[in-house]
């Protein structure tokens, strides 16, 4: 009965959020959170050679535009997903949709805590990607948010959902906020793969946000 009530509250909250997603308000409130910066850096470091990227549960957020070196980017959601000239949006049920293939990179950010069958959902993510990047709220109190059906979520719970340890994980804390997020990275072919300075050195670079007068002279 308790789980049924939590599922009902989660669905009710999901309906409320749908309007916020479509308006862009959700992204405007979150676009400069640090954990997005971490995901961006991880993508630029580990997915520099990727040719395909699937993001699941996009909530109409345009962060896939950051990864413009990846020619095929798909945004998937059960609500109307983000879509643009460079990102293909697909609306559907993730557990039922036939993607017909695997992807070089799969991301799923702040979604699993909303999914009643989180283990099956996570295992499908792992089956679809060569590199899988997941983020979840880290140890948020139970019942704090009605659409979070698994809080508190820690590394142990995420490992149980995925069926294995991540190759890399980090907990990100936002300034002036008590909430933290856990980011986990999986090389699905090699549980023992590791990454270091040589991978960081080869990352896709961003243009420096400095006045041209102080940038190095490339001439």
From TrEMBL:
Gene3D superfamilies from the UniProt entry: Vaccinia Virus protein VP39 (3.40.50.150)
InterPro entries: SAM-dependent_MTases_sf (IPR029063)
Name of the protein this chain belongs to: Class I SAM-dependent methyltransferase
Source organism: Maritimibacter fusiformis
Lineage of origin: Bacteria, Pseudomonadati, Pseudomonadota, Alphaproteobacteria, Rhodobacterales
């Amino acid at each position: 009965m308790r789980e049924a009530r939590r599922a009902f509250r989660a669905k009710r909250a999901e309906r409320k959020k749908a309007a916020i997603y479509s308006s862009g308000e959700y992204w405007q409130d979150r676009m400069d959170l640090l954990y997005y910066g971490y995901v961006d850096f991880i993508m630029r470091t580990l997915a520099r050679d990727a040719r395909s990227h699937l993001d699941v549960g996009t909530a109409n957020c345009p962060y896939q535009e950051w990864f413009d070196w990846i020619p095929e980017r798909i945004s998937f959601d059960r609500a109307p997903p983000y879509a643009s000239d460079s990102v293909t949006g697909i609306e559907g049920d993730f557990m039922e949709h036939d993607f017909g293939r695997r992807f070089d990179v799969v991301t799923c950010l702040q979604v699993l805590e909303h999914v009643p069958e989180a283990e099956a959902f996570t295992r499908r993510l792992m089956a679809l990607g060569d590199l899988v990047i997941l983020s979840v709220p880290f140890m948020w109190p139970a019942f704090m948010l009605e659409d979070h059906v698994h809080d508190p979520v820690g590394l142990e719970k995420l490992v149980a959902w995925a069926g294995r340890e991540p190759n890399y994980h980090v907990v990100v804390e936002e300034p002036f906020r008590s909430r933290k997020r856990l980011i986990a990275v999986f090389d699905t072919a090699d549980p023992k793969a590791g990454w270091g300075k040589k991978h960081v050195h080869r990352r896709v670079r961003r243009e420096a946000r400095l006045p041209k007068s102080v940038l190095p002279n490339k001439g």
